[in-house]
Amino acid sequence: MSSRVTSLRRSQVVRAATQSPVLRDLRHLDSIPRWWLKKATFADPSPKVVKQKDRIKWWNIVPGDQVRVLGDRESTIREVLSINRFSNRVYLKGIRNEGESSQQPPRSINVHYSKCQLFIGKHEFPPVDGSTETRILPVFATRLGTSKPTWNVVKHCWEWKRFAVNTTPRLPHWSKEIAADLSDRVQIPWPEKEPEEKAPPTDYDTKAEVVAELTYEPSPITTRLLDPVPRQHLQGKQERKYLNSVLNPGAPFDKTAAMEVHVEQELSPIHSRAKKQKRWQELQAYRRQLLHDYIAAEMAPEKMRKHKTSKEARAWAVFKWREKMQEMQKAEKQRRWVNRGAQARLIRKQARKAKKAAREERRLKELSLAVADNQIIPEGVPTRSPQP
């Protein structure tokens, strides 16, 4: 296997599951280096990839289709949620069973591409022997045919048509000769994406005409340094200040004025080395100033009455300053712990543990043994009839 891949990235392999039915490239057929499949840490996802020769080139099952899984006795029709072209897996939406909570979404399943049969629709079939009523049965495609794929220059994707060559149950007007004819094949349309429903506007939403209103009036004076400076008699007081701010970025300027200002500080990254150093220097200056304030407070005449010497007063000031520094460090550690999401994960973990304990307790309360031989019920224990 080649260790160099030019058109494919590792992030595309790790996050290969997609909900888009459009095929824009054939990168899923490229070779993948082995080290891409290794996990750097325990929390990293482990991508699963089949061999290059086993990958499917043209996918006829895409998100939005309705399929059934081979081997399902109930022949439940499920909707395709997403697909993974590197592992040949199809992710299907789960079905909510009776008695399940409506707040918790149903759990999805994933199956191999070969275990899915496309749902064509419900068709009428002749009645069985001894009956006069027609039957309406769901029809699934057991064999698919496609047209020649073509590249759509406008949409930047591959396009082709898919047909049902054979179905189960077989359509009544079909025969082996008719099924071989291309004109009589059942074309299966591609799923169409439903338009998103827009929520009705509320009092907190901004109206469209307010958003489209132009409220910014640029300054009539050019901001380019190479352009000629306008004459003095055409300039007002505000224009003079603006020109001074353009020519001297360090000069004070009224930031509330409705004209351009220097935004290099706002646009520069906050994690640059210069800004980190500036914040560190400001923190050190704040610590030194806080220590001086504590020492000055302890050396005050009303505090010196409690201390024997100035050395003892300074020691008390340093002690209080160190306690303050420890509190600040704990508060900063707590803030970072909350910002990185650890608090939210802890709350979710506690909720899961509580639900698990409640389930175990409910199972123990509802536990019942079937009546059988060689069973002795201790005296004083109430009996309960077994559930049917």
UniProtKB/TrEMBL annotation:
SUPFAM superfamilies: Translation proteins SH3-like domain. InterPro entries: Translation_prot_SH3-like_sf. This is KOW domain-containing protein. It comes from Gloeophyllum trabeum (strain ATCC 11539 / FP-39264 / Madison 617) (Brown rot fungus).
